[in-house]
Amino acid sequence: MKVVKKIKLASNENLFHTIFEAVNLPITLINNRYEYEWVNACYCRAQGTKPSDLIGNTVPAVWGQEVFDDFIKENLDRCLEGYEVRKEAWVNFSARGRCYCETVYSPYQNPEGDIASVIVVTYDITDRKMAEEQIENSERRFRNLSEASLEAIVFIEDGIIVDANDALNCLFGYGGDDLCGRRATDFIVPERRFFTDKRIRTRTAGAYETFGLRKDGSTFPIEVNPREFEHDGKKLRVSAVRDLTEHKKIEKQLRDYREHLEKLVDERTKELKKSEEKFRNIFENAVEGIYQSTPEGRFLTVNPALAHIYGYKNPEEFMRAVTNIATDIYVDPERRKDFIALAERDGIVRNFEMQARKQNGSIKYVSVNASTVKDGNGKTLFYEGIVQDVTEKKLALALVTLQRDLALKLARVHSLGEGLAQVLQAAITISGMECGGISLKNSETGGFDLVHSTGLTKNFQKKIQHILVGSFTWSQMMEKKGFHIRPIKKLTPIAFQEGFRFISVMPMLREDDVIGFLCMASKVLTEVPEQVRIGLEVLAAESGNIIARIKAREQLEREILARREAQDALESEHRNLGEAHTALQEANTALKVLLKHREEDKKELEERFLSNVQRLVMPYVEKLKKSALDPVQHMSIDFIESNLSELVSPFLKSIQGFKFTPRQLEVATLIREGRTTKDIARILNMNERAVEIQRLMIRKKLGLNKDKTNLQAFLKSLS
Predict the structure, then answer these.
(1) What is the pTM of this model?
(2) What gap in Å lies between CA 598 and CA 593, rounded to an integer?
(3) pLDDT per residue over 518-551, tens digit each?
(4) In CA terms, which of 7, 159, 317, 412 is 20 to 30 Å from 698?
């Protein structure tokens, strides 16, 4: 049998099952170990069993070793070599009973292109077989009766009919001796007479088919079975003639039925190919990452979008590189265990967020929705799902929260060193880089001096301790331009020699003056997202004002200390010298002027801080609100917006004197907005009883615990 084109179905096994379940024919998939990999419902009904009793079981166990060795094994082996096999035989199904079937064995390719299984389709042709057997039985009886009674028999001598029985007369529509004396070929259609005459003249034996011509001119198919014998010294040719009209009719019906079945299979195959192509287009062109992976941690299938999410050129490169999902993809391998636990427990995982590592070492946030695919025995075969990159949303939310927290922390900072440490730690958290430093402008040299760093080697600190006027970094900073680059030997030799793979340098501004710069570096990352760059630049710009405020406050405190020392000295001299009294008054006046300036500077810095929050932070909050977020994320954004609004409002200033705890401050803010106890409990993740206790404590600190004043109205009045 010729080698046939191998069937290669869609990699989506669910689609494969759905289509073959729709075909009302027993269909099975058998692997090269003679085990059932899959069976459809029609096959299960024929066997009177269910899929779980068959899948994983062997063919000899189901049909018996003898039947397998005698009728099935050879066909499976031939098909696994790449040949299509068709066999007809009587089959004893457990539920359907004995049927005469045509069984088609077709090779099946796995996703790697190897023939590892066989698709077996069984056609019940019992009716056709019974009809054929009836025809054969009729022919056998006819021949026996013809030999016994000479029914439909014609005797020919030298091409002339010398005798015929009544059956032959009836067959051709004649009566009596109408046939005798006429040429035998007169009762054959004209176009077949030469062929028939030649067989008679050459005394050719053996049955043949032709078309007879009746008395009324009608034609019909006949089978002629001649024999030569001698009678009374004459060489005669006796032929049994059989009408094939019904036989041909049945043959046509069987042929039409077979063609119909073949057409049906062809149509189903085309539908499968069309569905496979449609699925493949969706799979290849999807924006989200689509995958199938084993419980052991290897990918079976990935689409181009998933490869791009993790920084690979194509799925093939991605699958070669990733051999253990837990360690190669997950930043925290324990999260892989959490995912498997959810998938095994519920069979489905929704909105599972994790940190993933790209090819270049950078970190992404992804959200996974997946389901578990199991075999008939309940064993997990693989997980399949969709992966979405949520890094931008996650970073935007984290940046807003981090900037708010940093602003609150810096508002309580009293020393420049402490403030620089807070800024640098926030920059490391935002960027994901390992180290960095802050340099401030030297008013005497005009260059920049390193004043605080984290994670930098002593050798590198020494090299960047002083950034001289005219250098590349100095020029960029003085033009108020930050840069995010991969170090190269010609442009940034110091960072290149240190082995950094990526650096970000941003100017720190006070009003429109450059007072320093923030530098971040990494030996792991080769790129940072655009959202992170924006966050670093906002942080650097805001830090300039805060650092200037801290420096101004430190300078003011030093001046106040000096004035106080001078005042003490003047007061000591005042007891002896009248002039000292006058000097002391002048000193007091100067001190009052300084204190007034201090208050004005403080007010100016507070206004600048509020302005920067409104200008640099609130627009990103609005941008987040317009993006696609789930309900929990929307609630978080609303809460952040509410807190920032309160931060820039006079309400917080008005209640500072009541010494609220952070939790009481959150509850008071939400009460002022008109939130119910139930809403506050949900937003702050508290139980309602705890919220009620906090309300009582707030009323007590406000002095309202002994009257019935409305708490919300009172809090609004404090603005």
Answers:
(1) 0.35
(2) 9
(3) 999 999 888 887 777 887 887 787 777 777 777 6
(4) 412
How far apart (Å, rounded) are the C-alpha atoms in residues 528 and 517?
19
Closest CA to 3 of 60, 82, 70: 82
Residue 289: φ, ψ to 5°: -75, 135
Tokens matching residue 496: 């290149």
Question: What tokens does 669 get?
Answer: 């803010």
In the chain, the amino acid numbered 284 is E
Per-residue tokens: 65: 């070793």
| φ, ψ for residue 381, nearest 5 deg | -90, -50
C-alpha atoms less than 13 angstroms from C-alpha of 142 in its C-beta half-sphere: 17
- The Cα 304–Cα 112 span in angstroms is 18
How many CA within 13 A on the CB side of residue 50?
3
Q: Assign residue 438 a region: left if phi > 0, alpha if psi is -120 to 50, beta otherwise?
A: beta
Q: For residue 222, which phi and psi values (nearest 5 degrees)?
A: -135, 155
Poorest-pLDDT segment among 504-513, 627-636, 646-655, 662-671: 646-655
Adjacency order of strands within the sheet including 115-124: 36-39, 27-31, 115-124, 97-109, 85-93
Q: Listing from the earlier edge strand, what are the strands of the sheet with 153-157?
A: 160-164, 153-157, 234-243, 219-231, 208-213
Kindly state the tokens that stand for 235.
Answer: 């060489």
Which residues have CB under 8 Å from 696's CB, separation 6+?
705
Angle, helices 578-612 vs 530-574, to 10°: value is 170
Paired residues of 348 in beta bridges? 371
Mention every residue, 6+ apart, whose C-beta is less than 8 A from residue 582.
none
**Does pLDDT of 492 surpass 80?**
yes
Q: What is the pLDDT of residue 47?
A: 87
| Surface-to-core class of residue 568, CB atoms within 10 Å of its CB (0-12 exposed, 13-18 middle, 19+ buried) | exposed
CA distance 8 to 115: 9
DSSP string covering 58-99: BHHHHH-HHHIIIIIHHHHHHHHTTB-EEEEEEEEETTTEEE
CA-to-CA distance for 680 and 143, rounded, in angstroms? 100
Q: What is the pLDDT of residues 242-287, one digit of tens each?
A: 888 888 888 888 888 888 888 888 888 777 777 667 667 777 777 7
Q: What is the pLDDT of residue 719?
A: 60
Give every CB contact of residue 195 below 8 A, 6+ residues apart in sequence.
210
* Residue closest to 403 by CA, chosen among 563, 688, 616, 138: 616
Q: In whole angstroms, what is the distance from residue 454 CA to residue 428 CA? A: 9
Helix ranges, 181-300 (H)? 190-201, 245-285
Query: pLDDT tens digits, residue range 643-681?
Result: 666 555 555 656 666 777 878 877 888 888 888 888 888
Q: Answer left, alpha or beta for residue 351, where phi above 0 means left and psi between -120 and 50 means alpha.
A: left
Identify the DSSP state of 718.
T
State the average pLDDT over residues 80-91.
Answer: 89
| pLDDT of 150 above 60 | no
What's the CA gap between 580 and 567, in Å, rounded?
10
113 DSSP assignment: S
Check residue 382 and give its pLDDT: 92
What Cα–Cα distance (Å) separates residue 402 from each residue in 418, 425, 454, 560, 603? 17, 11, 19, 34, 24
* Nearest Cα residue to 506 out of 443, 455, 433: 433
- CB atoms < 10 A from the CB of 425, how many? 14
DSSP letter at 6 equals: P
Averaged pLDDT for residues 594-601: 66
Q: What is the pLDDT of residue 147?
A: 44
Cα 204 to Cα 210, 238, 397: the distances in Å are 15, 12, 98
